[in-house]
Amino acid sequence: MADSNYQAVGGYSAYASEKAAARSRRSKWIVIGSVIGLIGIIAIGVGVGISVSHNKKSSSGSSSSRAGDPQQTDPNDPSTFVKDSRLHKSFYGLAYTPEGSLMPDCGNTLEAVIKDIQIMSQLTTRVRLYGADCNQSALVLEAIKQTKTDIQVFLGNYPVPSDPTVYTRQRDIIKQAIQTYGTDHIAGVTVGNEFMLNYLGANSATDPNGPVGAQGAAILKADIQDTRDMLASLSLPKTIPVGTSDAGSFFNTEILSSVDYGLSNVHAWFANVSAADASAWVSNFFQETNVAPAAALPNRPKMYIAETGWPTKSSDASNANNGASDASVAGLQTFIDTFVCQANTNGTGYFFFEFFDEVWKEKQYGGVEGWWGLFNSDRTLKDVKIPDCPSP
Ligand SMILES: *[C@@H]1O[C@H](CO)[C@@H](O)[C@H](O)[C@H]1NC(C)=O
Ligand SMILES: *[C@@H]1O[C@H](CO)[C@@H](O)[C@H](O)[C@H]1NC(C)=O
Ligand SMILES: *[C@@H]1O[C@H](CO)[C@@H](O)[C@H](O)[C@H]1NC(C)=O
């Protein structure tokens, strides 16, 4: 079951190489996508915000506050944050990784997560995390507690095929966070982020339900069952749903049959669809590729869109568009205007991608990777108008 394409050289190295390899595969998948309609591989590296962690650590002492951080009427009480009238709770959910949540550097801070929760709580009642490293589960739950906000969190465990300890490490962090904070603000535990996509890519296969897919699925399925066992061992007052997240076309049927929910990445931008057509495209893709197949399974897992959004710029000119799809603020506005309220009306659960521009991705990957935020990296709102149609 060891992934022969990778050396198991400790959690971090395996993790990093996995991500680098996945990253390099992306363009290939996008091309394949044009043929078989698979899309949505942006999340490479999404699970891990970092970049500023070094700055934060080295500049300790000086305030780490950012231009867009909310003010508090009582500096000692994070629940007294001043609301921003431009924001509305119109988003079903937001995709989120606290900055500085990549092993081994870490560097995230409760102070920064509190500011993030103060802003996000004005946009949504649901946040999904990708992984659990660097104590991010507890930081988010603590921030919700201190801000007294009504956010429900989908905790995440981001396993890698080549090193089982990456899974167990995160499982134990999640367990501890649940023991500390209880279940009131936990909506689910997601085991796997693009696990099948990465496993297939690492083993030169493409079919999540083929023989190689079955090998990868066996690993992931064991992790999912292990998480269920861990939750059961806690005798919790409510049953916490367990799910998995993957690229839209990479769900293995046996995995879907063993989860309560599936989260699917669906990105029109990578399909060369224009901003004007993106909402309809995302909706169709999600219905056909994810919702309908899931509804046909005996366990009928609930399907959500794990990520959908629109980049506002590219670090280089060559990636500034994909055919018809331009990276622009106007494009983001168009997508928000045509997707958010419709999806709310249609009963589609989605996690908008994403809350803020992630600087580390811009540095590491270039292109559009670092520019998907509704907010700039300093947490100031981009020049977009947030729709006002309360999400259910
Ligand atoms: C994790 O975060 C919580 C909340 O801030 C804190 O109480 C706890 O000490 C942290 N644990 C570690 C290992 O940093
Ligand atoms: C999207 O457009 C780019 C740039 O025009 C092109 O290189 C790529 O092959 C197209 N991809 C698809 C999936 O059509
Ligand atoms: C909502 O449903 C309508 C009617 O089926 C469909 O045309 C539209 O694309 C859907 N939009 C979203 C965002 O789900």
TrEMBL record:
InterPro entries, per the entry: Beta-glucan_modifiers, GH, Glyco_hydro_17
Residue stretches of biased makeup (Low complexity): 55-65
Chloroplast among keywords: no
UniProt keywords, alphabetically: Carbohydrate metabolism, Cell membrane, Cell wall, Cell wall biogenesis/degradation, Glycoprotein, Hydrolase, Membrane, Polysaccharide degradation, Secreted, Signal, Transmembrane, Transmembrane helix
Catalytic activity of the protein: Hydrolysis of (1->3)-beta-D-glucosidic linkages in (1->3)-beta-D-glucans
Localisation per UniProt entry: Cell membrane; Secreted, Cell wall
Enzyme Commission (EC) number: 3.2.1.39
TM stretches of this protein: 29-50
Membrane topology: Single-pass type II membrane protein
Region (Disordered): 55-81
Skewed-composition ranges (Polar residues): 70-79
Annotated Pfam families: Glyco_hydro_17
Top-level taxon of the source organism: Eukaryota
Family named by the database record: Belongs to the glycosyl hydrolase 17 family.
Biological role stated in the UniProt entry: Glucanases play a role in cell expansion during growth, in cell-cell fusion during mating, and in spore release during sporulation. This enzyme may be involved in beta-glucan degradation. Active on laminarin and lichenan.
Name this protein carries in UniProt: glucan endo-1,3-beta-D-glucosidase
Species of the source: Hohenbuehelia grisea
